[in-house]
Amino acid sequence: MSSRIEQILFIEPPHELKFKGPFTEPVQTIMSLKNPSDKKVAFKIKTTAPKRYCVRPNCGELAPKEKAEISVILQPFDYDANERNKHKFLVQTVVIDPVSDYGEDGKTFQWRDVEEGRIMDSKLKCSFEMPTVEQLLESKNIHDDTTAVLETNTETELQKAATEVKELREEETILRQENMKLKEELLQLQYEIKNQQSQKRSVGGSQHLDMQNRNANIALMVGVAIVVALLGIIAGKYVF
Fold this sequence. Notes:
Layout (H helix, E strand, L loop, with lengths): L9 E3 L3 E5 L6 E8 L6 E7 L5 E4 L2 E4 L4 E8 L13 E8 L24 E10 L3 H107 L1
Parallel strand pairs: 2-9
Antiparallel strand pairs: 1-3, 3-7, 4-6, 4-8, 5-7, 8-9
Main location: membrane
GO cellular component, one term: endoplasmic reticulum membrane
InterPro entries: Ig-like_fold, MSP_dom, PapD-like_sf, VAP
């Protein structure tokens, strides 16, 4: 590792990023950056093969005592033993001056304005490791076992889902039957209420007619009594 001034960050791994094949799929490794100082530090990461790697995040800032994990993903490629140590990474850092290093918004760090003498460099090489035949076979067995477990779990989940669907359909049928029964009971109740109301109207009419007849009889009796009284008065006059 070489640098203009001593690197302020702790970088892990410090010298080499290892990628384990086979390289028919993306391969990821992690680079850790830790700021042990009491100052805010900016960083950015470069590589000699930018089209072959995806680095996230490839730049940022670390507060005092803060740590960041950088994901470095190697894209699939045809392995070439002669190429395994050609790729390199460069980690550049600088202690931030809060007065002069930010843009007009006061938030965006401006690398282009940093003096070259303030920048700290750390270089890491890349190494590609192809697995042995035994490792490939072991990986295949693990993959096959995992696939078998997944298939078994999938079949179990499908059976469980089918059972749940069947139970839900049975519950739906029961609910439909109960709903029909409730509708029938409601119609019967409405019919009984109408009959009761009709009977009340009929009874009320009869009672009203009886009352009218009773009142008429009383009026007739009163009239007869008045006539008798008048006749008595008239008869008394003639007798005396």
